[in-house]
Amino acid sequence: MVTIKEVAKKANVAVSTASYALNGIKKVSPETKEKVVQAARELNYRKNGFASDLKRNSTKTLALILSDLSGPFYSELIRGVQDVATDHGYDLIACSAIGGENSTAAKFLTEHRVDGCIVLAHNITDEMLKNVAHHNFPIILLDREIEVDSTVHVRVNNKKGGFKATEYLIQNGHTDIAFVSGPSNSYDNKMRFAGYQEALQAYNIELQNKWIVSGNFTREGGESAANILAAQDQVPTAIFFANDEMAVGGMEAFQKRGISIPNDISIIGFDDILEAKYVYPKLTTIRQPKYEMGASATHIIFQMLKNEEVNPTFELHTDLIIRESVKKL
Amino acid sequence: MVTIKEVAKKANVAVSTASYALNGIKKVSPETKEKVVQAARELNYRKNGFASDLKRNSTKTLALILSDLSGPFYSELIRGVQDVATDHGYDLIACSAIGGENSTAAKFLTEHRVDGCIVLAHNITDEMLKNVAHHNFPIILLDREIEVDSTVHVRVNNKKGGFKATEYLIQNGHTDIAFVSGPSNSYDNKMRFAGYQEALQAYNIELQNKWIVSGNFTREGGESAANILAAQDQVPTAIFFANDEMAVGGMEAFQKRGISIPNDISIIGFDDILEAKYVYPKLTTIRQPKYEMGASATHIIFQMLKNEEVNPTFELHTDLIIRESVKKL
DNA sequence: ATGAAAGCGCTAACAC
DNA sequence: GTGTTAGCGCTTTCAT
């Protein structure tokens, strides 16, 4: 590997001068600079980023920690992160938390390899986060329940969103409303369910346990939930799927059985994924401001990096997106 | 920041001993090891990954360079890369090539921040690749045209795939076959088109220029291509969309116009994206072995890292996936 | 404007 | 088994 030393030698200058020249620091004369740059080019010199980061004690890069690099995840959110990072002249890398303690994510979280992290992964333990959180190592948690010191949370008001979804169904004349839930360890799911409960209660509708079925946030889960619901002797007139993925699967399962959406059953989802407006009928849902989540999280990182005081939690709100999957009774 | 020096001091040992203990190197006695680990824990010591990488001159991490972190991309492919990297005890990070010369990708490509790269991005120039390629810095290029020294290519036989798609249409009795192309600078597109041409020629069917329309590889492009085709006085009986994304858009556009697939027009795509089997009718297409592409690319990196001789190009083949969007005439 | 040299935090060769 | 120390490649202070 060719080092700056060799470049300096070839250009007949000291390493310090070479460093200045290569980094565009003004105090070096145009001619010397040219000499150095030329030598570097001839030797095909590539700086060693680590050495320089080590010395500077800053990496100018942020890590985005995902459950799994191969998705699925919200691309809008990532775009939000990316845009803000770029605006600040920072680089962004994404890494996977598969493997927990031994994951790439853990390596970046613990080994000072980045200046800050945005965590969008549930397979990284609270424990680990706690150990790593540090006043000058900003960590932003997306959609997480726990409060970890020196950590900030950005989340959507899932409960209010769940309420809105359920209320919209009620306002359309529905009272027999099922809830298809995500995994029980999901904070999002828990809150959406809480919103569902609250809305039923607010309108004096009794919650029916037989209509609470689990779908694991996956398309297949949605299908099987729909099948379970359809097989009961009393079928609900509307279903609130705790995410769109399940809703899409559920719609398909119903249609396979000859049950028409929204004529026979109304459906509302949560998230507003890209597909929501491409399915038939177009899915009515609760939109999460995904881009804003990513952008806010990243903004907060930079505030923290500047040692500004920030709130420990940051909450965004949801919107009801009315499309075609809910019928007025 | 607490360094290994402080840990050593607290544990009353030399830094080397601390280093050995922390890295699980056997030559240190259990008691000393315990002392060190304990001290590290108490001080909340986190190693500086750069310092250690710098010293070891190896990062044990690979970079996956994508056009844009926020997708879209083939998750199957990434899974292939991820699996193989993990098997070898390597970490994987993904980074974006947005910004070209100034992108994060460029930083990782040029600054020795990883041990190898897999490039799945068209916004990184051949020029840059050429400058960076080095016999002990493996770079694998996916779906690229150019031959760059010290670089290996993994690609799918797009031409043969294009041939297969077209031939299947012909074997189903079609002779009026349109081609909806991707961007003209795409190597994939070019080769798929070549396969289309070759098949027509092989079966003595004349190529009709009015039936070659551009769709830019996007869903919207597919829609507008379908509309253009539908508006002509002579409409083809079958269409080969150069990717599934466009095919899905095209199907939708036709259906909006009351044209039935496959009764009025047969459609075949390319890629076999996830959605292909969810649309109605299910899309007949040419499958790319995406997982295998990722896995092979990564395997090759490790071969190169071990200084084994590897072929400069590695070609995978496609499969015809017959579903419901092509009718026998 | 340029150079000499210290030192970032770590690993590993070497000495004991 | 443990300690001393050189040095990875770079930036930056200080002297000139």
Automatic annotation (TrEMBL), chains A, B:
Ranges of residues in domain HTH lacI-type: 2-56
Keyword rRNA processing: no
InterPro entries: HTH_LacI (IPR000843), LacI/GalR-like_sensor (IPR046335), Lambda_DNA-bd_dom_sf (IPR010982), Peripla_BP_I (IPR028082)
Molecular-function GO term, any one: DNA-binding transcription factor activity
Record key words, sorted: DNA-binding, Transcription, Transcription regulation
Pfam family, one: LacI
Domain of life the protein comes from: Bacteria
Protein name: Substrate-binding domain-containing protein
